[in-house]
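$ ./design --mode recover --in tokens.txt
reading tokens...
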């Protein structure tokens, strides 16, 4: 038998996921703002070779893309963990009342 989440449990889970997403967004925003700031105020720095012949612009850009993928994986991991905690609590509660 499936027990539906209460409205409060769904809201709590949504709040936790949203808070995590917002935190990760601001972390990425800070890193991206660094790239834009360099591009606007010190654009000549972007032509400096840094990694294996790649200039800073390419290395930073590729790094931002990889960082976004990593943040997506982190977000998925923690959201799954939050959902598993709710499911485990439901199973514990179900077992205690039966």
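writing sequence...
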């Amino acid at each position: 038998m499936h027990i539906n989440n209460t409205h409060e449990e769904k809201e709590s889970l949504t709040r936790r996921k949203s808070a995590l997403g917002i935190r990760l967004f601001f972390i990425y925003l800070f890193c991206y703002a660094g790239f834009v700031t360099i591009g606007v105020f010190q654009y000549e720095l972007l032509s400096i070779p840094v990694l294996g012949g790649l200039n800073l612009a390419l290395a930073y850009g590729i790094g931002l893309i990889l960082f976004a993928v990593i943040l997506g994986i982190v977000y998925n991991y923690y959201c799954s963990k939050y959902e598993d905690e709710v499911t485990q609590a439901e199973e514990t509660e179900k077992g205690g009342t039966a």
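exit 0
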